[in-house]
Specification:
With 137 residues, the chain is α+β, with helices and mostly antiparallel strands. It has 3 helices and 7 strands.
């Protein structure tokens, strides 16, 4: 991360006032580095991007070959389920792909789960959790 970005408690604060690199580019760079550095892990957790009283889930990032820019793969809770299903069924993915243009706020916060945290399940517990069980008596 940038020297001027605040990072603590699994949260990174990206503020355009502290750095000459625009906040939107720093978000894209940070997310790209996060997913690339964890690509060999069995599980790569999504990120939460918070801004101006709203948040979206970042499921991934892609690099555009022609321009070498990045696009975030996001799920925005402000979209209705029917709109999401319609878009996916009709291969209209522009609402799920965010470039610098969609990142126009002056300040962002990224929340993430660190792989060093003790929140992760053991391999046995993870396998056990995959089985659906009837909890009714």
């Amino acid at each position: 991360s940038d020297d001027n970005d605040d990072e603590n408690n699994n949260t990174i604060q990206l503020n355009k006032l502290k750095n000459s690199i625009p906040a939107n580019q720093r978000v894209l760079n940070w997310v790209w580095n996060y997913f690339c550095s964890n690509k060999n892990k069995e599980i790569v957790f999504p990120l939460y991007l918070q801004y101006s009283g709203h948040s979206v889930l970042i499921a991934g990032v892609e690099r555009i070959k022609k321009s070498n820019d990045f696009r975030l793969i996001v799920l925005n809770s402000s979209y209705s389920c029917s709109n999401i299903i319609y878009s996916l069924n009709n291969r209209k993915t522009q609402n799920f792909r965010w470039s610098k243009k969609q990142l126009h706020h002056p300040e962002y916060q990224i929340c993430y789960i660190s792989y060093e945290d003790d929140l992760l399940l053991s391999i046995g517990d993870r396998e056990y959790s995959k089985t659906l069980r009837n909890l009714q008596k």
